[in-house]
């Protein structure tokens, strides 16, 4: 089962945008679906950072060879065990599903009933085309909800 996160301070501000209020009618809420940063970001380059555990289990940041600025999300994962665990769980769950159909089914089954707006990836990115198209399919199946994402996976 995927673990969706409630709105953070930035996404909470969407409630004040007049054009978005219809998506939040009937006490619907804002959620995000987050994945493990760096590991799920196939096209990260200048921002590539990952939370990695040392031999004692303490997590630190490992930057990529071209990193110019550290991923804020990977920094959260290194500092906050619960954030790391939730994102790793979601990433591992989706990576274990080997088809577009299975990913679509999982996304649909686990989407919170009261979701009105969903942001894909405060942390992470579309790690393959099956996952990307499953996310598009989820949005198509729920036209009364708003789905959005920022991505570097443009290919």
Question: Outline of this structure?
Answer:
This protein is α/β, with parallel strands linked by helices and 155 residues long. Helices cover 34% and strands 17% of the residues. It has helices spanning 9-12, 72-79, 81-96, 100-110, 129-141; strands at residues 5-6, 29-33, 49-53, 59-63, 115-120, 146-149.
Overview of the molecule:
- With about 160 residues, the protein is α/β, with parallel strands linked by helices.
- About 35% of the residues lie in helices and about 15% in strands.
- It has helices spanning about 10, 70-80, 80-95, 100-110, 130-140, and strands at about 5, 30-35, 50-55, 60-65, 115-120, 145-150.
- Helix 2 crosses helix 3.
- The longest helix has 16 residues, at about 80-95.
- The radius of gyration is 16 Å and the shape is globular.
- The protein starts with a strand and ends in a 6-residue tail after the last strand.
- The mean pLDDT is about 95.
Secondary structure: elements and pairs:
Layout (H helix, E strand, L loop, with lengths): L4 E2 L2 H4 L16 E5 L15 E5 L5 E5 L8 H8 L1 H16 L3 H11 L4 E6 L8 H13 L4 E4 L6
Parallel strand pairs: 2-5, 5-6
Antiparallel strand pairs: 1-2, 3-4
Helix pairs in contact: 2-3, 4-5
Strand order of the largest sheet: 1-2-5-6
* Major sheet summary line: 4 strands, mixed
Report the portion of residues in β strands. Answer: 15-25%
Number of strands: 6
Poorly predicted residue ranges = none
End-to-end separation in angstroms reads 28 Å
What structural class do helix, strand and pairing data support?
alpha/beta
User: What's the gyration radius in Å?
Assistant: 16 Å
What value does the average pLDDT take?
95
State the helicity in percent bands.
25-40%
Shape type = globular
Count of DSSP H/I helices:
5
Elements, N to C (H/E): EHEEEHHHEHE
């Amino acid at each position: 089962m995927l673990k969706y996160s409630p709105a953070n301070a930035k996404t909470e501000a969407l409630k004040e945008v007049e054009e978005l209020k219809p998506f939040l009618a009937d006490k619907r809420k804002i959620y995000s679906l987050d994945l493990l940063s760096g590991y799920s970001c196939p096209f990260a380059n200048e921002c590539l950072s990952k939370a990695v555990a040392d031999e004692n289990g303490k997590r630190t940041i490992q930057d990529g060879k071209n990193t110019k600025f550290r991923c804020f999300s990977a920094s959260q994962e290194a500092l906050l065990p619960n954030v790391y665990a939730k994102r790793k769980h979601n990433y591992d769950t989706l990576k274990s599903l080997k088809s577009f159909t299975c990913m679509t089914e999982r996304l649909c089954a686990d989407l919170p009933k009261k979701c009105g707006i969903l942001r894909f990836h405060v942390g992470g990115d579309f790690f393959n085309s099956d996952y990307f198209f499953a996310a598009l399919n989820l949005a198509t199946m729920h036209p009364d909800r708003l789905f959005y994402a920022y991505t570097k996976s443009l290919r």
